[in-house]
Amino acid sequence: xxxxxxxxxxxxxxxxxxxxxxxxxxxxxxxxxxxxxxxxxxxxxxxxxxxxxxxxxxxxxxxxxxxxxxxxxxxxxxxxxxxxxxxxxxxxxxxxxxxxxxxxxxxxxxxxxxxxxxxxxxxxxxxxxxxxxxxxxxxxxxxxxxxxxxxxxxxxxxxxxxxxxxxxxxxxxxxxxxxxxxxxxxxxxxxxxxxxxxxxxxxxxxxxxxxxxxxxxxxxxxxxxxx
Amino acid sequence: xxxxxxxxxxxxxxxxxxxxxxxxxxxxxxxxxxxxxxxxxxxxxxxxxxxxxxxxxxxxxxxxxxxxxxxxxxxxxxxxxxxxxxxxxxxxxxxxxxxxxxxxxxxxxxxxxxxxxxxxxxxxxxxxxxxxxxxxxxxxxxxxxxxxxxxxxxxxxxxxxxxxxxxxxxxxxxxxxxxxxxxxxxxxxxxxxxxxxxxxxxxxxxxxxxxxxxxxxxxxxxxxxxxxxxxxxxxxxxxxxxxxxxxxxxxxxxxxxxxxxxxxxxxxxxxxxxxxxxxxxxxxxxxxxxx
Amino acid sequence: xxxxxxxxxxxxxxxxxxxxxxxxxxxxxxxxxxxxxxxxxxxxxxxxxxxxxxxxxxxxxxxxxxxxxxxxxxxxxxxxxxxxxxxxxxxxxxxxxxxxxxxxxxxxxxxxxxxxxxxxxxxxxxxxxxxxxxxxxxxxxxxxxxxxxxxxxxxxxxxxxxxxxxxxxxxxxxxxxxxxxxxxxxxxxxxxxxxxxxxxxxxxxxxxxxxxxxxxxxxxxxxxxxxxxxxxxxxxxxxxxxxxxxxxxxxxxxxxxxxxxxxxxxxxxxxxxxxxxxxxxxxxxxxxxxxxxxxxxxxxxxxxxxxxxxxx
Lengths: 227, 291, 312
Hints:
The structure holds 3 protein chains of 3 kinds. Chain B has helices at about 1-35, 40-60, 60-85, 90-115, 125, 140-160, 165-175, 175-180, 185-205, 220-230, 235-255, 265-275; strands at about 130, 135-140.
């Protein structure tokens, strides 16, 4: 489903991606972690069409999408959320969900009910609290009927009291639509609890992958973070 | 032919001096406040008018008039920063539109008060001719270039060594970091604005005696100063200086082989070319968050 | 509902003006100018108000339309209405071509490039004497040719033409605002990066609205020079481009009535009050600054909030 082959990307003298390889063939919630400078943001940027790699390939469902711009990827079925949480502030919650949507309005209303925002359907998204906007943003990605869902630090900025709710919510969404989720996260507790498989990056390449338990016990991963 | 080139080069350096003064003011303000003050041209013009006023009505001393004009415009600039630009901080589009409003209001206020006709500012002391090779230039021409170079030098020293200068540079590079380190960024804002306005006023006061003092006199220098900033690289102070001089000289030299009607277009064409081919300019400083 | 009634009433009044104001050709003259300023403002509103593109060279495209029309009519001896259509298309094409270049830049740089192109086009209009007749202007532009026996020579008939053209422009604006295309434009204004992530080809949409806005400006330009019977560069200068921004902002950027309100205030009010033109522009400059500081939604926004308060 996702195939990353030998991706290379340098910014000036800094090698952000140094021959990164990753194959993900099954749906699931994959956590993408790594210490600072490991290259996960760059990998994410390449996958979402924000940056072009210097070399290498990205394939989604067998299609070479390596240098596709963001809008083409979105049309192809790559949906994403943003670390800073982006919604259209002047559009209402419902309008936000309906923008560029492939699902009907009934689905939008159902999703709004799911996140307890149905009474705010006509309310401009700017009036929501941060947590509410985060839920709205994630739910909006489903309206495009994506093949792959890329979440950029969904826990960032979320009140710790709401993190558990967010976790349950993302799990619930996965149960409804077993797509391929890739979640970049710094919040270890969150991502270990959420993901079924963890991919660890280090120095621009994939270091190790496995279940959360295996990764947490791995001496190589520990050394990457501490060493 | 050679003397024609020399003549136009000196003319170009003179015109370029004014562009440099405008460009410096704009680039300093842009660096610190991240706003392009399109109203800088009218501030130059008001500087010329104020200088003219002091020179003809109050004191016969050109130097004193220049100093007074600089002080008055500096205060005006600070007032504008606090009243208009500070409240709109963070909203680029609104700041630019507000500066357009300022251009309209100030330019037409001058027309309403002083009339639409040009004023003359004859400074006998500087009208005398000076010889450069076989060419003759009014002293004022060379004065403009000389004063500008001196001011640029002082400005560089100020920015590099003085406390405020360093604070200005720090705020330009990273406003958040500057705040964390304890730099009073709000104070830096209005100081920089006042400084930029003072430079514009100096430019106006210097070219007043050369041509005429008229309400639209700042429009072209503003655009050309802008072209200079783009050429030198947005956000770069040395770039603004070099860019401004290059524009002035290129413009003047172009009259040797192009009809003079199109002289103004040289700056515009350079601007568009730079943006198309080399958007970072000569010493481009990549300002984050422009996207 | 109330706004619909108000709209119908206003339209009826506007159509009745020539009959109601028989002895006041001056009023017709002023209203015609309002229309001629409102039309390019509609084009700019689509670009600036709905899409967030601050163009500082808008009137240059009105100039492309006007001068193309002038050359086709006077030099190529084309029929009026054909030359008008071609003028509008030329303005739109110019917008597409120049827009494609300008739109590669964001925010500050976009404003600067549009400013630069506007100045360059003005320079061409001012100096290319062979084609544009230079600074003195292109004389001999006729009033519109009669349509089905209806002649546009008389002031009141030209008024109906100007009013009709303005209505067409506003109808286009209304249609766009309600359409999916308009929705995308508004999304681009709010958050372009997000819109892209949702599948919007930003460049395509922005170029399209730039072309549309320029074409509408071209319509205004053609009618303007037909009214004045001369095409002069001064009508399409940087100052006029700034006036266009003023009209859009004061009226209310991104609102349907904005360009009309702005044009009325800009042209109508001072003409009616007989204020000296220099002070008028001082007032407008100050007004623009005040609106940015205290009422960024412009007159349209002020009216709307006043209306909302009345209803409570």
